[in-house]
């Protein structure tokens, strides 16, 4: 498991994000072994904007 990808996902939860239905999003509920999701997908960004209004 890529620790940085898991950290990005968990930080999303700390910020108030729920799981996403978009497989490419960092907030997707499962990881494939060896997969890296270190950046934010448009769905992740949209979720943050919805919560914090920017």
From TrEMBL:
Q: Which residues form the active site?
A: 10
- In which residues is Zn(2+) bound? 9, 13, 19, 27
Gene Ontology BP, a term: extracellular matrix organization
Q: How is the cofactor bound?
A: Binds 2 Zn(2+) ions per subunit.
Record protein name field: Peptidase M10 metallopeptidase domain-containing protein
GO CC annotations? extracellular matrix
Q: Is the keyword Protease in the record?
A: yes
Q: Where does the record place the Peptidase M10 metallopeptidase domain?
A: 1-53
Q: State the UniProt keywords alphabetically.
A: Hydrolase, Metal-binding, Protease, Zinc
The keyword Zinc appears for this protein: yes
Which sequence ranges form a coiled-coil region, renumbered to this chain?
none
Recorded hits in Pfam families, A to Z, give:
Peptidase_M10
* Organism encoding this protein: Ficus carica
* Required cofactor names: Zn(2+)
Q: Name one GO molecular function term.
A: metalloendopeptidase activity
């Amino acid at each position: 498991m890529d620790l940085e990808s898991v950290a990005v996902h968990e930080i999303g939860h700390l910020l108030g994000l729920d799981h996403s239905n978009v497989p490419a999003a960092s907030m997707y509920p499962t990881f494939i072994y060896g997969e890296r999701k270190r950046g934010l997908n448009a769905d992740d960004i949209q979720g943050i904007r919805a919560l914090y209004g920017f």
